[in-house]
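We were asked to recover a plausible sequence for a given structure. The inputs and outputs are reproduced exactly as logged, with field labels preserved.

PROBLEM: sequence recovery
POSITIONS: 417
GIVEN STRUCTURE:
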């Protein structure tokens, strides 16, 4: 049997020879999962603080999700949006009720959701008679997906290189800088021919390094977008679906966006995307204006309804308590080791910023050798993305593992000076 953290199978590379090489994969494969743990094809258990990049909301093999999908799979998988889908209508109603918005559209991924949100914002402005208002403002360091249009929504060259000229209609403001954003919006509004249709933001930048917006930013943003007459799009793809401790991360700010883009954890691991909008926005989306072949199929809807059932207020209150415990333990850990420069994030989207000279790949490799999985991010950061139902025992296990890895890292740094 191979050593934990080493190649899970001598045949992994050869078996992947026909798979395109656009992923930097670890030589590790899994056969099944149980709660917060994944079991490799070699039989080793790994604590999963990656969750498919914030997708496995309830961990692995959650009995209610398994039962719901099994039951639905025996009845009906897919029809198309040419017909009524009762499960879709129910899921849309639930999302509208819990968000305070009015209508929902379903697709299959985060990039599809943000792309649809941008289309809806532009179409809504056109529908309201503002044909010139097409531009979308995004924060520097943002990540909204990998379609060509969403590459234009990010300002990071690493995602754009080699993909040709970016589509027009996107601009950026300094992350968290309300003064700069307000100046940009007011200057546009007073130009005589406003171009800005919407501002699209993540309350916590996931790929951007688990960076949260400053306190009060969302409330100020809602006020200034109302003032200048443009829309507010909340990108809840990674920080949404309870990961902040609230179903929607903007809830504590007391505001309502005009459009919400969701995906990742909404169906607990089954592919899904969703856009929720106000009636004013949804009125512009007439038959034929947008669509999705697979979006909102009965399997995805059943999974999403099950996740929404579980993520009630009692669950989320307990999750906030557990995530606060994890954050406290991590901040205590950061005071022990020079390898840790900062701890940041919100809920169960937490970033550990590493000291100069230490890379996320080094720490991820070492953690994997200790049977724990995490995710990299920008800003020399690793992300912790545990299942939302992770137990306190597994939280303590994760912190102990990090303690061991950072302890060895600091020791090595000292002994090699």
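RECOVERED SEQUENCE:
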């Amino acid at each position: 049997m191979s050593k934990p953290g080493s190649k899970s199978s001598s045949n992994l590379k050869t078996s992947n020879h026909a798979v395109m090489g656009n992923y930097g994969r670890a030589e590790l494969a899994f056969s099944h999962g149980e709660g917060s743990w994944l079991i490799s094809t070699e039989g080793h258990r790994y604590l999963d603080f990656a969750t498919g990049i914030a997708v496995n909301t309830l961990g692995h093999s959650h009995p209610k999700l398994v039962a719901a999908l099994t039951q639905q799979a025996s009845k009906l998988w897919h029809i198309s949006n040419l017909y009524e889908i009762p499960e879709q209508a129910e899921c849309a109603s639930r999302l509208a009720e819990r968000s305070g918005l009015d209508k929902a559209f379903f697709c299959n991924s985060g990039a599809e959701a943000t792309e649809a949100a941008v289309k809806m914002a532009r179409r809504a402005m056109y529908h309201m008679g503002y044909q010139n208002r097409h531009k979308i403002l995004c924060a520097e360091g943002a990540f909204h997906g990998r379609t060509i249009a969403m590459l234009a929504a990010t300002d990071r060259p690493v995602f754009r290189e080699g993909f040709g000229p970016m589509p027009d209609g996107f601009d950026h403001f300094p992350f968290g800088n309300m003064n700069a954003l307000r100046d940009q919006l007011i200057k546009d509004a007073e130009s005589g021919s406003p171009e800005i249709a919407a501002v699209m933001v993540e309350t916590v930048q996931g790929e951007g390094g688990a960076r949260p917006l400053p306190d009060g930013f969302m409330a100020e943003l809602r006020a200034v977008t109302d003032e200048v007459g443009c829309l507010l799009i909340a990108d809840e793809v990674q920080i949404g679906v309870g990961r902040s401790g609230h179903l929607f991360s903007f809830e504590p700010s007391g505001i309502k966006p005009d459009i919400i883009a969701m995906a990742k954890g909404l169906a607990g691991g089954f592919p899904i995307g969703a856009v929720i909008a106000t009636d004013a926005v949804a009125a512009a989306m007439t038959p034929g204006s947008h669509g999705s072949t697979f979006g909102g199929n009965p399997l995805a809807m059943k999974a999403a309804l099950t996740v929404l059932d579980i993520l009630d207020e009692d669950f989320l209150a307990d999750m906030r308590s557990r995530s606060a415990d994890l954050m406290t333990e991590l901040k205590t850990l950061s005071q022990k080791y020079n390898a840790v420069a900062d701890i940041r994030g919100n809920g169960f989207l937490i970033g550990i910023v590493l000291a100069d000279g230490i890379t996320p790949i080094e720490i991820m490799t070492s953690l994997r050798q200790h049977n724990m999985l995490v995710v990299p991010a920008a800003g020399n950061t690793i992300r912790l993305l545990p299942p939302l139902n992770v137990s306190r025992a597994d939280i303590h296990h994760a912190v102990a593992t990090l303690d061991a890895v950072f302890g060895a890292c600091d020791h090595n740094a000292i002994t090699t000076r």
